[in-house]
TrEMBL record:
Pfam families: PAS_9. InterPro entries: PAS, PAS-like_dom_sf. The lineage of its organism: Bacteria, Pseudomonadati, Bacteroidota, Cytophagia, Cytophagales. Signal peptide: none annotated. It comes from Chryseolinea lacunae. It comes from the Bacteria. This is PAS domain-containing protein.
Amino acid sequence: MKTDHPTFRFHPLLCWDIVAQGLYQKRNRLALESLRKFAAKHQLHIDLHAVAEKDFEALVITDADQTIQWVSHGFKSMTGYPAAYAKQRKPSFLQGPATRAADRQHIRDAVLRHQPCSATILNYRKDGTSYQCHIELIPLFTSNHILTHFLALEKEAR
């Protein structure tokens, strides 16, 4: 394309990350909106602004017994499992033979103490491939300080 303007130049797109960033932000906005609706329905107190500032690919909510109640759309993209399959299962269904017992114990200890934690654990996708999953676990309490749920922000560690 020819232009008469001397400072006008076309520059090739050097990286698709620019495009992907917009898709990533849109997916996370949709996940946060879905999380907001779930939290309102179940009267959960979640600091959505703090969650929005975090880097995540998937969100998972379990009840206090660690049974999955809700997952974001990113969960299927990351694991290959649809939400309907994950619901009513424990997150441990993603673990396998090479998942380290120490990593599982670290998360289990935080759950028992009702404390937040960060961990990276080896999980397995539906197709059997393994991946390192970084998890930020946040306990969710009622206004009376009763633990009702856990929120996990998950991202594949690369």
